[in-house]
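Bench notes, afternoon.
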Amino acid sequence: MYSKTEATQLRQAFWTTLGQYMQPVPSADGGPVNWMNYKTGLKHVYFRLHADNRYATVSIEITHPDEGLRELFFEQFREMRPMLEEATGEAWTWEPAAINESGQPLARIYCELRPANLFSRDDWPRLIPFFKPRLLALDEFWSTGQYAFDELR
Protein backbone atom coordinates (compact mmCIF):
# COMPACT_ATOMS: atom_id res chain seq x y z
CA MET A 1 0.00 0.00 0.00
CA TYR A 2 1.26 3.44 -0.87
CA SER A 3 0.73 6.73 0.93
CA LYS A 4 -1.22 9.36 -0.96
CA THR A 5 2.03 11.24 -1.64
CA GLU A 6 3.82 8.12 -2.90
CA ALA A 7 0.87 7.22 -5.13
CA THR A 8 0.82 10.74 -6.58
CA GLN A 9 4.56 10.64 -7.22
CA LEU A 10 4.38 7.23 -8.92
CA ARG A 11 1.41 8.30 -11.03
CA GLN A 12 3.20 11.49 -12.09
CA ALA A 13 6.45 9.61 -12.79
CA PHE A 14 4.67 7.06 -14.99
CA TRP A 15 2.78 9.59 -17.11
CA THR A 16 5.90 11.75 -17.44
CA THR A 17 7.91 8.70 -18.54
CA LEU A 18 5.27 7.71 -21.09
CA GLY A 19 5.04 11.30 -22.35
CA GLN A 20 8.81 11.50 -22.81
CA TYR A 21 8.80 8.13 -24.57
CA MET A 22 6.06 9.27 -26.97
CA GLN A 23 7.26 12.86 -27.46
CA PRO A 24 9.58 12.24 -30.45
CA VAL A 25 6.91 10.23 -32.29
CA PRO A 26 5.14 12.34 -34.96
CA SER A 27 1.42 12.11 -35.63
CA ALA A 28 0.04 10.16 -38.60
CA ASP A 29 -0.05 13.50 -40.44
CA GLY A 30 3.66 14.00 -39.73
CA GLY A 31 3.36 16.86 -37.26
CA PRO A 32 4.10 17.10 -33.56
CA VAL A 33 1.40 16.00 -31.12
CA ASN A 34 0.93 16.07 -27.36
CA TRP A 35 0.18 12.38 -26.90
CA MET A 36 -0.75 12.73 -23.23
CA ASN A 37 -3.34 15.41 -24.00
CA TYR A 38 -4.46 14.46 -27.50
CA LYS A 39 -6.67 17.08 -29.14
CA THR A 40 -9.38 15.48 -31.27
CA GLY A 41 -10.60 18.89 -32.40
CA LEU A 42 -14.11 17.73 -31.61
CA LYS A 43 -15.79 19.11 -28.51
CA HIS A 44 -16.85 16.39 -26.04
CA VAL A 45 -14.78 13.67 -27.78
CA TYR A 46 -11.59 12.61 -26.02
CA PHE A 47 -8.91 9.97 -26.33
CA ARG A 48 -8.18 8.94 -22.74
CA LEU A 49 -5.49 6.87 -21.10
CA HIS A 50 -6.14 5.40 -17.67
CA ALA A 51 -4.13 3.20 -15.35
CA ASP A 52 -4.51 2.32 -11.70
CA ASN A 53 -3.63 -0.60 -9.44
CA ARG A 54 -5.94 -3.05 -11.26
CA TYR A 55 -6.07 -2.27 -14.97
CA ALA A 56 -5.21 0.11 -17.79
CA THR A 57 -7.41 1.40 -20.60
CA VAL A 58 -7.13 3.35 -23.82
CA SER A 59 -10.50 4.81 -24.74
CA ILE A 60 -12.52 7.11 -26.90
CA GLU A 61 -14.94 8.95 -24.61
CA ILE A 62 -17.96 10.89 -25.78
CA THR A 63 -19.07 13.20 -22.98
CA HIS A 64 -21.65 15.42 -24.67
CA PRO A 65 -24.14 16.58 -22.02
CA ASP A 66 -27.07 16.07 -24.41
CA GLU A 67 -27.95 12.36 -24.42
CA GLY A 68 -29.33 12.45 -27.96
CA LEU A 69 -26.19 14.06 -29.35
CA ARG A 70 -24.01 11.66 -27.36
CA GLU A 71 -25.92 8.78 -28.98
CA LEU A 72 -25.54 10.38 -32.41
CA PHE A 73 -21.76 10.67 -31.97
CA PHE A 74 -21.59 7.07 -30.75
CA GLU A 75 -23.57 5.87 -33.78
CA GLN A 76 -21.19 7.75 -36.07
CA PHE A 77 -18.28 5.92 -34.42
CA ARG A 78 -20.19 2.64 -34.79
CA GLU A 79 -20.39 3.22 -38.55
CA MET A 80 -16.62 3.63 -38.53
CA ARG A 81 -16.01 0.49 -36.47
CA PRO A 82 -14.36 -1.46 -39.33
CA MET A 83 -11.96 1.43 -39.90
CA LEU A 84 -11.10 1.59 -36.17
CA GLU A 85 -10.59 -2.17 -35.95
CA GLU A 86 -8.39 -2.11 -39.04
CA ALA A 87 -6.23 0.63 -37.51
CA THR A 88 -5.97 -1.03 -34.07
CA GLY A 89 -5.82 -4.61 -35.29
CA GLU A 90 -8.21 -5.69 -32.55
CA ALA A 91 -11.83 -5.48 -31.42
CA TRP A 92 -12.53 -2.94 -28.69
CA THR A 93 -15.38 -2.87 -26.16
CA TRP A 94 -18.29 -0.61 -27.13
CA GLU A 95 -20.28 0.89 -24.26
CA PRO A 96 -23.08 3.24 -25.39
CA ALA A 97 -24.09 4.25 -21.85
CA ALA A 98 -21.64 4.49 -18.95
CA ILE A 99 -20.93 6.72 -15.96
CA ASN A 100 -17.44 8.05 -15.21
CA GLU A 101 -15.89 8.38 -11.75
CA SER A 102 -17.35 11.90 -11.46
CA GLY A 103 -20.87 10.62 -12.11
CA GLN A 104 -20.97 12.11 -15.62
CA PRO A 105 -22.80 10.09 -18.29
CA LEU A 106 -20.74 9.16 -21.32
CA ALA A 107 -20.36 6.69 -24.14
CA ARG A 108 -17.04 4.98 -24.61
CA ILE A 109 -15.08 2.65 -26.82
CA TYR A 110 -12.10 1.10 -25.11
CA CYS A 111 -9.38 -1.51 -24.90
CA GLU A 112 -8.30 -2.86 -21.53
CA LEU A 113 -5.23 -4.51 -20.03
CA ARG A 114 -5.81 -6.63 -16.90
CA PRO A 115 -4.13 -7.08 -14.55
CA ALA A 116 -1.93 -4.02 -14.62
CA ASN A 117 -0.60 -1.92 -11.78
CA LEU A 118 0.59 1.62 -12.45
CA PHE A 119 2.04 1.74 -8.92
CA SER A 120 4.41 -1.16 -9.56
CA ARG A 121 7.39 -0.06 -11.63
CA ASP A 122 7.73 -3.73 -12.59
CA ASP A 123 4.50 -3.34 -14.61
CA TRP A 124 5.66 -0.28 -16.54
CA PRO A 125 7.36 -2.42 -19.23
CA ARG A 126 3.89 -3.93 -19.90
CA LEU A 127 1.96 -0.67 -19.67
CA ILE A 128 4.05 1.41 -22.08
CA PRO A 129 3.82 -1.17 -24.93
CA PHE A 130 0.09 -1.41 -24.22
CA PHE A 131 -0.45 2.34 -24.58
CA LYS A 132 1.94 3.25 -27.41
CA PRO A 133 0.59 1.17 -30.33
CA ARG A 134 -3.01 1.95 -29.41
CA LEU A 135 -2.35 5.68 -29.25
CA LEU A 136 -0.64 5.51 -32.63
CA ALA A 137 -3.53 3.47 -34.04
CA LEU A 138 -6.10 5.95 -32.70
CA ASP A 139 -4.13 8.78 -34.27
CA GLU A 140 -3.99 6.94 -37.61
CA PHE A 141 -7.73 6.25 -37.41
CA TRP A 142 -8.52 9.85 -36.46
CA SER A 143 -6.33 11.37 -39.20
CA THR A 144 -9.02 10.35 -41.70
CA GLY A 145 -11.97 9.38 -39.50
CA GLN A 146 -12.43 12.83 -38.00
CA TYR A 147 -13.93 14.11 -41.24
CA ALA A 148 -16.99 11.90 -40.76
CA PHE A 149 -17.91 14.24 -37.89
CA ASP A 150 -17.75 17.51 -39.84
CA GLU A 151 -21.52 17.89 -39.85
CA LEU A 152 -21.65 17.36 -36.07
CA ARG A 153 -19.12 20.07 -35.21
